[in-house]
User: Fold this.
Amino acid sequence: MGIPIGNTYTATASGSVWRPVRCEHCDVSFAYLMKREGIGVADSLLWSRNEAAGEEASAMAQESLAVQLESQWDARPCPGCGAYQSSMTYLWRKARFMNVAFVLGGVLALCSATLFVMILFDFHPPRAAASGLRWASLTSFFGMGVAWYWSQRLDPNADAAKRAGRVEPGVLRKEAYEERVAEGALPPLSWERAHLPPA
Ligand SMILES: [Zn+2]
Assistant:
């Protein structure tokens, strides 16, 4: 933000790939659809290179998308036994933490904003309200740490048996996938390299 001295170009590129997995628990082979979005930003200082900046932004977005599709993976349960692969555990735990952190972060931001406005306008709230705000801020702040500790101790496969045999949307067993390949509807996969990148 500030005085406008040029244009900022933003571009997005979205894409998806099918990731093959050979389950380390039950040996079932399956593939899941992994979707990603790349973002590119470029500046045209003093409007000197608008066209170049636009192209630069979309090239950056494409590059970022390609890197993500090549190097990342998702946490998806096996349609055979319902378990997650060990290489997916970190992602699964992070997702659990982020759910809690999102709520706590919201509380923290709200409290901070309220306190900031009170200070700004030299407003003295009733003592109970002030201590309530402080309490909520501190709790959500330390709650983040507790949530992280908690999430790192969760076992993604504790309830794997409940998911056994369930094929989620965006997941195909190898046989079903190969049928679609034969129809020309999906690109062939290298099942030998199952679960990319190597854990
Ligand atoms: Zn399995």
Notes: The CA atoms of residues 108 and 137 lie 5 Å apart.
